[in-house]
Amino acid sequence: MNDVSAMTGACLCGACELTAVPQADHAGVCHCGQCNKWSGGMFIGLYCGNTITFKDGSPVKTYRGSAWGERLFCGECGSTLVWQTQDGQNQTASVHLFDDPSAFAVTQEIFIDRKPSAYALAGNLSQMTEAEVFAKYAPSPEDG
Ligand SMILES: [Zn+2]
Ligand SMILES: [Zn+2]
After folding, report:
1. What is the pLDDT of residue 76?
2. CA distances from 6 to 88, 98, 126, 134 (A)
3. Answer CATH for 7-137 from 2.40.30.10, 2.60.120.260, 2.170.150.70, 3.40.50.300
4. H-type helices in the chain, by residue range?
5. How far is the CA of 118 from the centre of ligand 2 (A)?
6. CA of residue 25 to ligand 1 center, whole Å
7. Which residues of the chain fall below pLDDT 50?
8. Which one of 25, 51, 108, 140 is least enclosed by Cβ atoms within 10 Å?
9. How far is the CA of 123 from the centre of ligand 2 (A)?
């Protein structure tokens, strides 16, 4: 990957400000049902390891949608912020928080078998099914 340094980002209303050091130079889409509800669209995530830090006073709220994952959102404007494991060690930020989302090419789709059939991404992206994702990452077969 390219040498990616710390980036700053913010939610829609600006109340939540964060810094993060992306751990990848590409972004991925999750088509799971929880991400669709939570983000209001396709969640396009940028893996940041455990490097995300919110500015003191940011009104971050947490929704625990499964036994191992949790979703952070702005308590003021509702913006989708970060999906993370509950230990905070694996954080994936919404690419739209950052000033230039185009800096990260979208190269992967996960939960491809959960994608609504009404739309599809163009291009030759790598794809993983729900079963493949859980086989690779998850401690238990629950929706992330
Ligand atoms: Zn906000
Ligand atoms: Zn998802």
Report:
1. 98
2. 18, 11, 26, 29
3. 2.170.150.70
4. 33-39, 130-137
5. 18
6. 25
7. 1-2
8. 140
9. 20
